[in-house]
Sequence to fold (478 residues):
Amino acid sequence: MTRLIIGAMVRAIGAYPSGWRYPGAHRDPRGDAAVLRRAAEVAEGARLDYLFFGDWLATGPDLEFQDPYLVARVDPIAAITYLAGVTSRIGLIATANTSYSDPYTLARATASADLLSGGRAGLNLVTGGEPRAAANHGADFHALNRSRHDRAVEFEIVLRRLWDSFDDDAIVADAARGVYLDPQKLHPTDFHGEHLSVAGPLNVPRPVQGHLPIVHAGISPRSRLFAAQSADLALVAVGDRQQAIAIREELRSLAFESGRDDRTLKVIAPVLPIVGETREHAQSIADELSELVQIAEDWPDGAPAGFPPHRSLAQLSQLVGLDLAGLSPDRAVSPPLVAEFSAAGQELVEIVAERTGRNPSGERPPTLRHLVVAASVNASMIVGTPDDIAAEFEAWGDAGAVDGFNVLSAVQPQQFEEFAFRVVPELARRGIMRTEYEGETLREHLGLAQPVSVHAADGAQAAVGEHVASVVPSTAGY
Ligand SMILES: Cc1cc2nc3c(=O)[nH]c(=O)nc-3n(C[C@H](O)[C@H](O)[C@H](O)COP(=O)(O)O)c2cc1C
Fold:
């Protein structure tokens, strides 16, 4: 048994593309306030480590089909600041994009969220995968991976220095003596790098947690290096347990090579459980969600512009190695048809059977639509009873595949609450999750030490005033 970090990745209209169409689902983001509040209360009641809010800096009609939750939603820092006021223990993590954010503004907003929440805020730094974001922020183009990461490295150093502007005891507030501030304990930032230039100091006291726990979510090798060198949590995209074991090992050895204690880097994988009272019930929910996903053939005159090109019989034809053009997407997949499929096609039939209970030789065979959806919807799903899901979490933890999970919910609030009310007690019974909060801050929930201020660590003015032309992330205090 391994104790795991368990957070919820909140997507208010559900994380599955058709989740918003499911009966009883929350659909209209204009009603997000009540849904987010309820989710936070339920998650805190379940003693989750944190709620996690992603971000995306552009929208368009194409997102309706790709990832409908990206079409319209509230700003993540606004969300965590709002939820800070209606919760008292749970951690609150917001995503920010280092390519388009201003570090002073972000340091200020996040230090404020940390103070207002009593030390429960966290920050997920991403470099962004949406090219349309550039035109929304006065940039001519979305910079290349390398350049975005160079800026991200500087960005994180600047954030930490800004958060360290005030020593913890800088505000004296001695009314009797009339002394408010000890000026020796307020430090300029004086950062002049290739991408960023910030004078400082920040006009918010040092965060309760010293520095907010930093998450980094990314895919590329450069992104992994960034996470390994300086993040507290690495949020990774993984297909299966073996791949997760390899990625965690790689991240930890990169962390070790960069001179830090590799155990301080926690590797977290997103997972999308579909919870049912019985396995068949869970499979029937997955089945219904699958049938509600639109595919290109649902538009006889052609799918709308921007429709995901891989969500089509044409793409499925390539995968299974058979020309399926012209067939109805609702055509049943029979054993003789499966026999003609490529190995990848046959594997897909097995995935569909596991998720939906549909077997080509059974009473309810899968249809071509089920195969298209399974091949094109990119989510790490576990379909089953609370016991099935907890057992899978435990197996991943015991295998050293992850330090925790970011749990996605296909349907809000139904699947989110099924997880909180049914799976969490099972996780607690197995010792994977706490039954009570032991600490006050997000750092304490995650088992992370409080970082020392750069000024305390380096000696009073050591890091201040120098020109930083070529920078590497500081690991001082970690
Ligand atoms: C699990 C996971 C979650 C992510 N969440 C976000 C997000 O909310 N917003 C965002 O802009 N990028 C998000 N990303 C994308 C990465 O931050 C990154 O911008 C993208 O992968 C391109 O950079 P890379 O090629 O270096 O990974 C996420 C990536 C992963 C793996």
